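Give me the fold.
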Amino acid sequence: MASKFCSRVLLLANASCFWWAIAGLMLALEVGALLFQHVWQYYPCEVCIYVRVWVAGLFFVALIALLLKRYCWGRLLCVLSGLALAFGLANESWNLVKIEYGIGNGSSCAFKANFPSWAPLDAWLPSMFEVQDFCKATPELLFGITMTHMLVAVSVGLIVLFGTALLGVFFTKS
């Protein structure tokens, strides 16, 4: 029983449901952020915008993985990309923790996102990627759990999932 479970976990990168779940979770995070912004007027800060970029990246990697998962090189590329993006999300989540709890300098925050000139996301999609507030504690979601707490949990979960999927790419025969 345990060995069957371990085998299934290692085959995560092969499963369409894994990639659909990642895409669905990332879409839910983006929709939730946009609801907080446009409906409940909790405007995004610079760090929040960077979180949205990492989440959007994970969403697109999951969609690409659905096309490439049948190829070993495609699975490897998508799992590595997902793992790198999950670490990027974890880094921004840590910056939000520093802001929320006043750790160190509380992370720096500007009123404009620092996008490269070749990808000015705030100009292309201002309703999603434009900074509208300075950094402060994130809103509470439920029972004292804030957006920051949820992002930390999601980041750690994604790192574990992609790390396990990476092992599966190397140690399984399909």
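The first strand starts at residue 140 and ends at 142.
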